[in-house]
Amino acid sequence: MPLVKTHAFVIRTIRYSDSSKILTLFTNELGKISVIHKGSRKNTKSGNSGSFSYYEAMIYFKDNREIQLLSQIHSLRVFKNIVSDIERLRAAYIVQELLNKSMPSSSPNKELFESVFGFFQCIDSVVKNAEFELLKFLVHFAETHGIIPEANSVRFETFFARSGFTLYKSDLDFLNSIRDEIESEEDVIRKDINLNKLCRIYEQLLLDNSVVSGYHRTRSVFDQF
Questions:
Q1: Same domain, 46 and 93
Q2: 8 Å CB contact between 122 and 129
């Protein structure tokens, strides 16, 4: 059974027993995998595996096994500013939940992994607009799924035929400029772009095309605040 060293983000945690947890990791070498972290609930020296950190993990990996064995995990960087602001916290949880629900298991995507790392770096910065960074990430995430909206008219019905989810050509022009990296936070304010609407559209699009059905609850929980 090979021991694999990989960088990782924790995207879900489940209590397994009085002493252990099952973690869902998004890793650069193995993709999304589930691991058992034995003794983690009682032994603080076994490694901190909380959210919003960038980790190095050692995993005993065996093909066709549903849950792998985590040997070691330690934090390389803690994104400590995320928890101090509810908009950053909401954006981070949305990305974690989308990764958990839309990514197939054991399918590495190093480009997406680097994008996730860049996203957490950006929203951890106190000068960044969390929702703008979330939208940029979602646009890139959709592209990795082969989903790019197109329009031949002024009004464009989105890809999943839901009432209330409509893109206009001005929205698509803005999204195209994000892909070309020529838009800034100042442009969002000047053009009066509805970031919330565009983020919701992309969230639902990704979930409708995901490997796991069912709408996520993170946004609805945060909308109550």
A1: no
A2: no
